Structures are given as structure tokens and as C-alpha cells.
Amino acid sequence: MRRHATSDTSGYQIPKGDGAADLEVAATRCQTVVMPRADKLLLLDTASLYFRAFYGVPDKVTAPDGSPINAVRGLLDIIAKLVTLYEPTHVIACWDDDWRPQWRVDLIPSYKAHRVVEVVPAGPDVEEVPDPLEAQIPLIRQTLDLLGIPIIGVAEHEADDVIGTLATRATMPVDIVTGDRDLFQLVDDERDVRVIYTARGMSNLEIVTDAVVVAKYGVLPSQYADFATMRGDASDGLPGVAGVGEKTAASLLKEHGDLDGIRSAAEAGKGMSAGVRAKVLAASDYLDVAPTVVAVATDLDVAAPDEPLTPLDPTRADAATSVAEKWNLGSSMARAIAAVGWAD
User: N- or C-end of the chain: fewer Cβ atoms within 10 A?
Assistant: First the structure.
């Protein structure tokens, strides 16, 4: 449930040839009839991606009035690349309606506490977000709407929880795009659910399958949430089990199957060294609550829209062109329009 991305320019250059001509070509292209694709759902961890875009695209990329638009343009380019590369028929922008839900904080008060800039008693706390990025979020939402990409969030839940629910209920292959390892718990070869992992940059995307999780961590995706609970994650304010790192956590899961099995073995004094047993028992209070915090929700009251990506009709194409010209989104919007057009 990590939010901040490291800088990743991926060799970004301000595209040349921006303007109405590019947009007109894209609008024409997206109305071309193409062969249908097999159904596939692309779930975007939207905040993860727009943070990455913000830090990856130079801040000298601005609108005519000087307003920052680097995150908007970067996100449009990301979407164009993802749709072109992975060929989804359906795309959903999953949203943090609450980036730090109170029910998670009630269980572990340190959860994301270091990223709070203002506590809001009656609603979501205010997250530390750079002002130039915060100013772009309304335009990000507007451009997603113009492209026909639905935005889905659920009150008192994070985008991870929306992704978990939609991926679990999907009746088609699913690609989850994120820089957050927590979502590895959703990987499932049998159901054709993969993670497109962005942590190494958009030029080095990694497709995470069952085998990749096993190779990286020595655990199955179904064990990953328990693994992450024990390991902890400083970026999310999760302390983990003191003295238990990745290797020990993986070894315990291999021996005992899941966290319940590990705790039962520790209480019985079997299947682990005295030192590890002491560490597991000392963390009992944390282990009583942490699994609920780490596990993404899979049962929210939300459904994925049935409508696939479709080429922009003339009205939407005109609206997208107008917005692109006003905000200097130029070729980034054009590439996104063209990608959506060919996704049909």
C-alpha cells in the first residue's frame, strides 16, 4: 500500500510535434475498425502511477499559463504504453477514496503515520502530497473520464482494496499495474491474474506470476500477505516481527503453511529454534491485528463496469482535443486517444 515512487524519467523527453495535427490523427485512427481482442481487464493503481509520473517527468513541462502538468502528461503516456503493450479490452482506474482508512489505523496506529500532514477526525487524514501534484489531480480525473476509463473508489478503503475485489470477481484475465508489492498476494496463475510491477520504471516493467513470487521470496502468492506481515514494511509503518527477516519468514511459511500454523507451532514449542519461537511469541499482539491490515479486501460492495474501452466518438474526441490544447497535453493525449481506439 506504498504510495511514493522513486524518480524514474526513463529517458523522458518533451515530445515534439505536439498540437492539433497529432490529435486529429489520433481521433481519426481511433475510429478505424480493428479485429476484436480477447477480453482482459487492466486494473490501475492510479495514485501509484501518477506519483511515478510526477517524479519521472520534468517539472518544466507546463501548461500555457505555467500550471504544472507533468503528472498528467506522464500518466497519459503510461496509459498509452500499457494499453498498447498488454492489449486490455477493459481498463479501470482504481482510486484511494481513503488512503489511510481508520479501521486499519485503529488496529495499528503507526500505519502510514509518517505521511500524515493533517489529522481529520471526521474523514480521511491529509496525506503528504507535493502541491504541484495535488493541483493536477482534478485534471487527471478529467482526462481519464474523457478517455472512457472509469474511476472506482470505495469509501473508507484504499485502491488496493478495490483492486483486490475486482480482481477476485473478474471473469476474464486480469493485469494489475502497481509499484506496490502488497498486491503480489493477488497473483494467481490458475485464474490468470498477474501484476505488472512498475518499481524499476516504465522501461523495465516486470510481469509477476506465481513463479516470479516464488523465485523472489520463496513463498507462494497465497502466502505473501503472511510473509509481508512478518517481514514488516517501514514505508507503511508496519513494524513486522522483530528479528524475523525475509529468509526466516519464508522458511517458517514453508514449514508451517501459514501464519496460524506458525503461531500454533511457536506456542507448542515445535518446528523452529528457541530464538525464533521467542520472537514470534513476543510479537503476539502485533500478529493478532496485522494480518487484517496487510490483507487487501476482496469483498467490497463494488462491481466492475461492463463497458469495454471504445474509440472516442466525435463529441468526446472534440472534448479531449479541446482539453489537450488548453493544457498543453498535446502528443501525450494523442497517444492515449490512439491507444484507446485500437483497444476496441
Answer: C
